[in-house]
């Protein structure tokens, strides 16, 4: 399928410097440099530390991806980059690099939305996304239910967290239990030996009059902390595995329940789950069980494609090229609060810079 | 020789083309908040103005700071990316050195100080013995904490203008960083066979990051 668009994608919205290369729906390279270890001692991502690491890793990661894919930069049909949402300074490193490569190589530039990219990455795993697609995105930064009639141009938010992101709750509970950062994998690991029904933790926003598709994890996090502290105060051991399993169950119960409700209400017979929390083994198994029960097809990419990566940006870029969507101008801003409804950021002015780039390159 | 020079370590977003003899074109916009948006269009503009193609560029010259980090990184990652995509060397030049060269072009001779705004009531600064010879390492300090003999020297740059009580002998030119001057300095160094700094950022400060002071209890104690 050599006529499918060959696109390089750059992702620097948080602490991963990701560069991916895809041809249509085929993943050719997925290079990632992570600064997660540098953030661990701070208990969370430090924006300036992340931005410095992106600058150091940017060009080497691009070179590594091109080598991995076995293609030359001149063969690319476009360069896509996360324009937002994310950490402002971190985004700017990726956006600046993408512009420079696109300009120097005479290729179109596509500034795309990080959340839409999380959805689109599943095309690399399970082929073309059905339209509309229902997506549950859960990570340290986002918890959203999205309905996407057109992944390159029409993504509608149905619900989102009103306080903490799901991944944030995992980090905070891991801290209460002394399990370190990032919390997701540690909770998942400990929960395997625990009883998910041991402690009845609250399910946020699941009352009859609560918003159908919004989430809240702040109350749950506090409830876990109270339970653990009361236990410690009484001088009793904290059953870490049971706490982890019961907390995790409360999170994934609400996530899957609301996602399936959204599918049914909107007549969508499949569900895509993405974001770092999609790597959680209990979320995967409960989602599968409930989807099967409801006659819904579940699509979850492999864990490496669920966390932030460049391949997801390339996947959306390739779809934009395939559908002839407008490219971005070279004054593309990095927008830390880019709304999910803006799938891409076409230029606010006439595309004269890109035209000029071709003249200046070949002139 | 065709040098593409730019600097984003100060409020100026400045790009220029230098052919080893003279500045062919320069674009300088003062907008401290939009480095990322303005830089590549500025590069495009100087190429158009000079009627030259990016493929003719033989080297990239970039100001490596010191300067506020978010803007500074725009120039550095753009330079590294151009260098890789075009297969040309990237020459790092201290941003203060560019201002010193411009001060020489404006007629300043002898020892002087260059100071730029480092925010947080501090300046980035270095001392020079003529436009091409820096005699101190770039540093960041409160103006009042600089040695009296440094403050008494003629001073250029926005940092000097901001603190007139400290820098008593201020000179108006250059008011802002100029990629034309940066390119001219790089051409001078290339002609003299001098080595360049690696194109790595001069941050001069560690990242602001607090190691959290343990876990905060939810229950009253
Ligand atoms: Zn993400």
UniProtKB/TrEMBL annotation, chain A:
One of its GO terms (cellular component) is cytoplasm. GO terms for molecular function: iron ion binding; tRNA N(6)-L-threonylcarbamoyladenine synthase activity. It is found in: Cytoplasm. Its cofactor is Fe(2+). Keywords: Acyltransferase, Cytoplasm, Iron, Metal-binding, Transferase, tRNA processing. Substrate binds at residues 137-141, 171, 184, 188, 280. It catalyses: L-threonylcarbamoyladenylate + adenosine(37) in tRNA = N(6)-L-threonylcarbamoyladenosine(37) in tRNA + AMP + H(+). Fe cation binds at residues 114, 118, 308. Its main location: cytoplasm. Its EC number is 2.3.1.234. Binds 1 Fe(2+) ion per subunit. Residues 27-314 form the Gcp-like domain. InterPro entries: ATPase_NBD, Gcp-like_dom, KAE1/TsaD, Peptidase_M22_CS, TsaD. Pfam families: TsaD. One of its GO terms (biological process) is tRNA threonylcarbamoyladenosine modification. PANTHER family: TRNA N6-ADENOSINE THREONYLCARBAMOYLTRANSFERASE, TRNA N6-ADENOSINE THREONYLCARBAMOYLTRANSFERASE, MITOCHONDRIAL. Belongs to the KAE1 / TsaD family. Required for the formation of a threonylcarbamoyl group on adenosine at position 37 (t(6)A37) in tRNAs that read codons beginning with adenine. Is involved in the transfer of the threonylcarbamoyl moiety of threonylcarbamoyl-AMP (TC-AMP) to the N6 group of A37, together with TsaE and TsaB. TsaD likely plays a direct catalytic role in this reaction. This is tRNA N6-adenosine threonylcarbamoyltransferase.
UniProtKB/TrEMBL annotation, chain B:
One of its GO terms (molecular function) is peptidase activity. The keyword Phosphoprotein does not apply. GO terms for biological process: proteolysis; tRNA threonylcarbamoyladenosine modification. Keywords: Hydrolase, Protease. InterPro entries: ATPase_NBD (IPR043129), Gcp-like_dom (IPR000905), T6A_TsaB (IPR022496). Residues 32-155 form the Gcp-like domain. This is Inactive homolog of metal-dependent proteases, molecular chaperone. It comes from Actinacidiphila bryophytorum.
